[in-house]
From TrEMBL:
This is Type-4 uracil-DNA glycosylase. Its EC number is 3.2.2.27. GO terms for molecular function: 4 iron, 4 sulfur cluster binding; metal ion binding; uracil DNA N-glycosylase activity. PANTHER family: TYPE-4 URACIL-DNA GLYCOSYLASE, TYPE-5 URACIL-DNA GLYCOSYLASE. GO terms for biological process: DNA repair. It catalyses: Hydrolyzes single-stranded DNA or mismatched double-stranded DNA and polynucleotides, releasing free uracil. CDD domains: UDG-F4_TTUDGA_SPO1dp_like. It comes from Sporomusa termitida. Keywords: 4Fe-4S, DNA damage, DNA repair, Hydrolase, Iron, Iron-sulfur, Metal-binding. InterPro entries: UDG_Type-4/5, Ura-DNA_glyco_family4, Uracil-DNA_glycosylase-like, Uracil-DNA_glycosylase-like_sf. Residues 30-183 form the Uracil-DNA glycosylase-like domain. It comes from the Bacteria.
Length: 223
């Protein structure tokens, strides 16, 4: 299948079985939001809820991400959300750098070539390592702008799954850091795409939006 448009690319991606990760997942997951956004968020890889629905960041991490985005005036329908890894690794383990490299070279690079966002937010270590360097460290490198190989400016922040594991003072500190990183991204986006509205009046109900895909995937799983 040709992959000239974002839709064609998505169809090819949803049929991918290019590596071993496909065997343990219900199927590859694609993106959510809009491919016409100047702002892209890149997460790690699908968890259980994402594998069920076929889209990234709609489970517990996605819900925390939504709250953080609301605090800086962003709704998910106005941005492009995707992952480095498209298939859920068995038992939700963290994908290796090599798995990230293989999947992102196969899919993410093509997605971004079509979407051409003006700003990228890397969520967590796996995204940071692919977009900046395998030696990058999220604790050291979050909150600092860097230029990706696509020539697109990017900033990394903590992954919501990491925040969900913190408590007490560490949690408060982590949440503020994420807030400042997201705010910096939104401000830069406003500079580079001044006419684009990052917030719609009604935040989307992502689970309702993709319930049909979920049903289809349940059927495939049973076959
Ligand atoms: N974490 C991610 O990085 N992406 C998802 O889709 C779900 C959890």
């Amino acid at each position: 299948m040709t992959q000239d448009t974002h839709e064609q690319l998505e169809q090819s991606l949803l049929a991918c079985s290019a590596c071993h990760l496909r065997q343990d997942a219900i199927g590859p997951t694609s993106y959510n939001g809009t491919p016409y956004s100047p702002l892209a968020i890149i997460g790690e890889g699908p968890g259980g809820v994402e594998d069920e629905y076929g889209v990234p960041l709609v489970g517990p991490s996605g819900q925390l991400l939504d709250k953080a985005l609301t605090s800086v005036g962003v709704t998910r329908d106005k941005i492009y959300t995707t992952n480095i890894i498209k298939c859920r690794p068995r038992n939700n383990r963290t994908p290796t750098v090599e798995e990230g490299l293989f999947c992102a070279l196969t899919w993410l690079d093509k997605e971004l070539a079509l979407v051409q966002p003006k700003i990228i937010i890397a969520l967590g270590s796996v995204a940071l390592k692919y977009l900046l360097s395998p030696n990058a460290r999220i604790t050291k490198d979050r909150g600092r702008w860097f230029t990706t190989k696509y020539g697109i400016p990017a900033i990394a922040t903590y992954h919501p799954a990491y925040l969900l594991r913190l408590t007490g003072k560490d949690l408060v500190k982590g949440k503020w850091e994420v807030y400042y990183d997201l705010k910096a991204a939104v401000e830069k986006c406003a500079e580079l795409a001044p006419d684009y509205l990052l917030k719609s009046p009604e935040p989307p109900d992502l689970l309702a939006l993709y319930s049909r895909r979920r049903e289809e995937r349940q059927t495939t799983k049973r076959l």
